[in-house]
Amino acid sequence: MDDARMGFPPAIPRARGTRIAADPMLLRIGVAVILSLLLTLPALLLDGRMLQGENVWVKPIKFQIALAIYLVTLAVFASLLPKDAAITRRLRWIGLALTLGTLAELLWVGGSAMFATASHYNPHPVMSAIYLSMGGVATVLILGSLMMGLSFWSARDNHLPEALRLSLALGLILTFVLTLPAAGTLAALPGHFIGTPVTGAVVPIMGWSREVGDLRVAHFLAMHALHAVPLIGVAAMGLSNPALARGLVWAGALGYAALTAFAFVQALAGQPAF
Questions:
Q1: Which of the listed residues 59, 93, 114, 242 has the most CB atoms within 10 Å of its CB?
Q2: How far apart are CA 236 and CA 161, in angstroms?
Q3: How many domains does the chain have?
Q4: Does residue 8 belong to any structural domain of this protein?
Q5: Burial code of 258-269, b = ≥16 C-beta within 10 A, e = fewer?
Q6: What is the three-class DSSP state of 50?
Q7: Is the pLDDT of residue 157 over 70?
Q8: Model confidence over 84-128: pLDDT tens digits?
Q9: d(C-alpha 272, C-alpha 194), whole Å
Q10: What's the pLDDT score for residue 18?
């Protein structure tokens, strides 16, 4: 019995030759990062060393979670691209670049935790040089988002509803465009705070300052454009007017970019987001 007769909304139609499963290389990387938590979570419980007010293994775990979410998201999005030879080759290069970049990030942050030294904003000449080089690695990681976004943008004959295709393209492209200045500013400054916290009040779990400007808020929003904007595209799929659906996606994408820019400027002015 089909979906319509069962009372479910119809599935998104698939064109002949279209991928129907998550990109294997990207998915393998994401799963490998998730499995690496089997090393760091026990270390968090067994190792009581502290660095800058928190357990030395907290930062590696945050990086692992963020990278896993990013990689699995890209793997799922890749399944929605047409099975085109050029796109397949592009995905292969994206997967290779993300594999190497992810490995470098995890070794850097995890290695720093092992020696109880700061991976970020460490004044030691060697660690400072590594930190600067890792900026290039981070750029490679978000380039994967840009390349996949451009693939959706150029796939005009894609089997997806236009609003969803557009939202995927804009969300992925904005992730690169918005993250680059936020991450670049974070790397150029001596820390992520703009101002000097007095009480150390922070947002639970996220650790964002509630006293001074914190550039990590804008960085977080920028990195999650690839999640937020496609959700707007999913909502727009319910509209019967294609032009209105596209307009909603564009408005949502521009609004999200404006929100991220506001958080960035607010942090630079030394004002807390919360």
A1: 59
A2: 10
A3: 2
A4: no
A5: eebbebbebbee
A6: strand
A7: no
A8: 778 888 888 898 999 999 999 999 999 999 999 988 888 888 888
A9: 9
A10: 40
Cβ atoms 217, 260 nearer than 8 A: no
Q: Who contacts 65 (Cβ-Cβ below 8 Å, separation ≥6)?
A: 37
Is 149 in the same domain as 234?
Answer: no
- 227-265 pLDDT, tens digit per residue, is 999 999 999 999 999 999 999 999 999 999 999 999 999
Structural domain of 42 = 17-159
Q: In terms of C-beta density within 10 A (0-12 exposed, 13-18 middle, 19 or more buried), how is residue 219 classed? A: buried
Q: How many other C-beta atoms lie within 10 A of the C-beta of residue 171?
A: 28
Predicted pLDDT at 21: 59
Strands 50-51 and 193-194: unpaired
* pLDDT score recorded for residue 22: 72
pTM here is 0.87
**Whether the Cβ atoms of residue 119 and residue 137 lie closer than 8 Å to each other:** no
> Are 66 and 108 found together in one domain?
yes
Q: How far apart are the first and last CA of the chain?
A: 50
Is residue 10 one of the residues assigned to a domain? no
* Three-state SS annotation for 205-258: CCCCECCCEECHHHHHHHHCHHHHHHHHHHHHCCCCCHHHHHHHHHHHHHHHHH
Residue 170, domain member (yes or no): yes
Q: Are strands 50-51 and 54-55 parallel, antiparallel or unpaired?
A: antiparallel
Instruction: Please check whether residue 247 lies inside any domain of the structure.
Output: yes
Q: Which residues contact 95 (CB under 8 A, 6 or more apart)?
A: 23, 25, 26, 29
Contact 268, 213 (CB under 8 A): yes
Residues 148, 172 contacting (CB under 8 angstroms):
yes
